[in-house]
Amino acid sequence: MYSKLQYISQGETIEKQLYNIHQALDAGCNWVQMRFKNQTQKDAFTLAEAVKPLCEKYTANFIVNDDLHLTKEIDADGIHLGLTDTKIDEARAFLGTAKVIGGTANTFEDIENHVKNGCDYIGLGPFRFTNTKEKLSPILGLSGYFDILQKLKKDKLEIPVYAIGGITLRDVNPLMETGIHGIAISGIITESDEKEKLIQQLNEKLYANIIV
Ligand SMILES: Cc1ncc(COP(=O)(O)OP(=O)(O)O)c(N)n1
Ligand SMILES: Cc1nc(C(=O)O)sc1CCOP(=O)(O)O
Ligand SMILES: [Mg+2]
């Protein structure tokens, strides 16, 4: 089963991305989504080429945001695709069954479609407003997660759902109570001066009800 915390990378340059990813790994993240928007193919490839061995060193999962060809070329563990990116079924046909494919959702219907098309996990958001992403879908809030997760349960649709968008430490308990599997976070991890402590606190809450 997938880890309950996914770090989504930030940084305007290859160097800043690499620094942020390295810091997150060092602080205990074991799942990284490389999100390097509006870059040349060459720069995205250069970054991915450096991130891959780094993630291997930390035995962390490495997925790529948006870019199907880069995912295959670099042999990343998988990809995250949004509602206007490559369709999940096309990505599955291109990447095969061994790769993880995550899909963005904002509604129950989005999740139903993703499940039908062979998606592995869902990034459901936004929870609240965030500056990290432009053109956000309608904000869900806690009640939005609660309603959608109830429908999934009623229809016996089983897929790990990750909450995303403006999530802070104090949101984790109420979000987990809605039935989500985990969370995807960018800003608060990138900006934290105490990353190890933050990640430990996040994981304590995320794994609070798991008996090992
Ligand atoms: C885990 C996770 N969930 C949602 C998103 C958003 O994807 P998308 O809508 O394609 O937006 P961009 O990230 O590509 O700007 C995500 N990246 N990760
Ligand atoms: C990449 C992304 N996708 C979202 C969605 O709602 O689909 S919100 C988001 C940004 C997540 O970063 P932060 O933790 O800094 O808010
Ligand atoms: Mg996208």
TrEMBL record:
4-amino-2-methyl-5-(diphosphooxymethyl)pyrimidine binds at residues 33-37, 65, 104, 133. The keyword Metal-binding applies. Mg(2+) binds at residues 66, 85. Its EC number is 2.5.1.3. 2-[(2R,5Z)-2-carboxy-4-methylthiazol-5(2H)-ylidene]ethyl phosphate binds at residues 130-132, 166. It catalyses: 2-[(2R,5Z)-2-carboxy-4-methylthiazol-5(2H)-ylidene]ethyl phosphate + 4-amino-2-methyl-5-(diphosphooxymethyl)pyrimidine + 2 H(+) = thiamine phosphate + CO2 + diphosphate; 4-methyl-5-(2-phosphooxyethyl)-thiazole + 4-amino-2-methyl-5-(diphosphooxymethyl)pyrimidine + H(+) = thiamine phosphate + diphosphate; 2-(2-carboxy-4-methylthiazol-5-yl)ethyl phosphate + 4-amino-2-methyl-5-(diphosphooxymethyl)pyrimidine + 2 H(+) = thiamine phosphate + CO2 + diphosphate. Keywords: Magnesium, Metal-binding, Thiamine biosynthesis, Transferase. The keyword Magnesium applies. Binds 1 Mg(2+) ion per subunit. Signal peptide: none annotated. Residues 15-186 form the Thiamine phosphate synthase/TenI domain. Pathway: Cofactor biosynthesis; thiamine diphosphate biosynthesis; thiamine phosphate from 4-amino-2-methyl-5-diphosphomethylpyrimidine and 4-methyl-5-(2-phosphoethyl)-thiazole: step 1/1. CDD domains: TMP_TenI (cd00564). Its cofactor is Mg(2+). Belongs to the thiamine-phosphate synthase family. Condenses 4-methyl-5-(beta-hydroxyethyl)thiazole monophosphate (THZ-P) and 2-methyl-4-amino-5-hydroxymethyl pyrimidine pyrophosphate (HMP-PP) to form thiamine monophosphate (TMP). This is Thiamine-phosphate synthase. The lineage of its organism: Bacteria, Pseudomonadati, Bacteroidota, Flavobacteriia, Flavobacteriales. The gene is thiE.
